[in-house]
Amino acid sequence: MAFNPAKFLRDVRTEAAKTTWPSRKETLTTTTMVLIMVVVTAAFFLAVDQIIGLAMRVLFGVGG
Protein backbone atom coordinates (compact mmCIF):
# COMPACT_ATOMS: atom_id res chain seq x y z
CA MET A 1 0.00 0.00 0.00
CA ALA A 2 1.55 3.28 -1.13
CA PHE A 3 1.33 6.51 0.78
CA ASN A 4 -1.05 8.98 -0.86
CA PRO A 5 -0.37 12.57 0.31
CA ALA A 6 -3.60 13.94 -1.22
CA LYS A 7 -5.74 11.36 0.61
CA PHE A 8 -3.82 12.03 3.80
CA LEU A 9 -4.53 15.77 3.56
CA ARG A 10 -8.23 15.09 2.86
CA ASP A 11 -8.38 12.85 5.92
CA VAL A 12 -6.67 15.50 8.03
CA ARG A 13 -9.18 18.13 6.90
CA THR A 14 -12.08 15.77 7.64
CA GLU A 15 -10.81 15.08 11.16
CA ALA A 16 -10.00 18.75 11.80
CA ALA A 17 -13.56 19.68 10.85
CA LYS A 18 -14.80 17.42 13.69
CA THR A 19 -12.87 19.46 16.26
CA THR A 20 -15.03 21.33 18.75
CA TRP A 21 -13.42 24.27 20.47
CA PRO A 22 -14.30 25.25 24.04
CA SER A 23 -16.23 28.45 24.60
CA ARG A 24 -14.55 31.51 26.09
CA LYS A 25 -16.27 30.83 29.43
CA GLU A 26 -15.08 27.18 29.46
CA THR A 27 -11.54 28.27 28.66
CA LEU A 28 -11.48 30.89 31.42
CA THR A 29 -12.99 28.46 33.94
CA THR A 30 -10.50 25.72 33.12
CA THR A 31 -7.57 28.14 33.15
CA THR A 32 -8.65 29.50 36.55
CA MET A 33 -8.95 25.98 37.95
CA VAL A 34 -5.47 25.08 36.70
CA LEU A 35 -3.92 28.23 38.18
CA ILE A 36 -5.61 27.59 41.55
CA MET A 37 -4.34 24.01 41.59
CA VAL A 38 -0.82 25.20 40.73
CA VAL A 39 -0.87 27.63 43.67
CA VAL A 40 -2.28 24.99 46.05
CA THR A 41 0.29 22.43 44.93
CA ALA A 42 3.16 24.92 45.24
CA ALA A 43 2.03 25.88 48.76
CA PHE A 44 1.75 22.21 49.74
CA PHE A 45 5.25 21.36 48.54
CA LEU A 46 6.68 24.52 50.14
CA ALA A 47 5.15 23.50 53.48
CA VAL A 48 6.39 19.90 53.16
CA ASP A 49 9.87 21.14 52.25
CA GLN A 50 9.95 23.46 55.25
CA ILE A 51 8.80 20.67 57.60
CA ILE A 52 11.39 18.23 56.25
CA GLY A 53 14.10 20.90 56.50
CA LEU A 54 13.14 21.64 60.10
CA ALA A 55 13.16 17.92 60.93
CA MET A 56 16.65 17.55 59.42
CA ARG A 57 17.95 20.51 61.40
CA VAL A 58 16.48 19.11 64.64
CA LEU A 59 17.68 15.55 64.01
CA PHE A 60 21.16 16.34 62.79
CA GLY A 61 21.78 19.76 64.33
CA VAL A 62 22.88 21.28 61.04
CA GLY A 63 21.87 24.33 59.10
CA GLY A 64 20.97 27.81 60.18
Estimate the strand proportion.
under 5%
Average pLDDT across residues? 93
Sheet with the most strands, sense and barrel status: none
How many helical stretches?
Answer: 2
Elements, N to C (H/E): HH
Helix vs. strand class: mainly alpha
Radius of gyration, in Å, reads 25 Å
List how many beta strands DSSP finds.
Answer: 0
Measured distance between first and last alpha carbons: 70 Å
Low-pLDDT windows of residues: none
Helix proportion range = over 70%
So what's the overall shape? elongated
Layout of secondary structure:
Elements: H1 5-17, H2 24-60
Keywords:
64 residues; 2 helices; 78% helix; elongated
Give a short overview.
This protein is mainly α and 64 residues long. It has two helices and no strands.
3D architecture notes:
This protein is mainly α and 64 residues long. The protein has a domain at 22-64. Helices cover 78% and strands 0% of the residues. The protein contains two helices and no strands. The N and C termini lie far apart (70 Å). The model has no long low-confidence stretch (mean pLDDT 93).
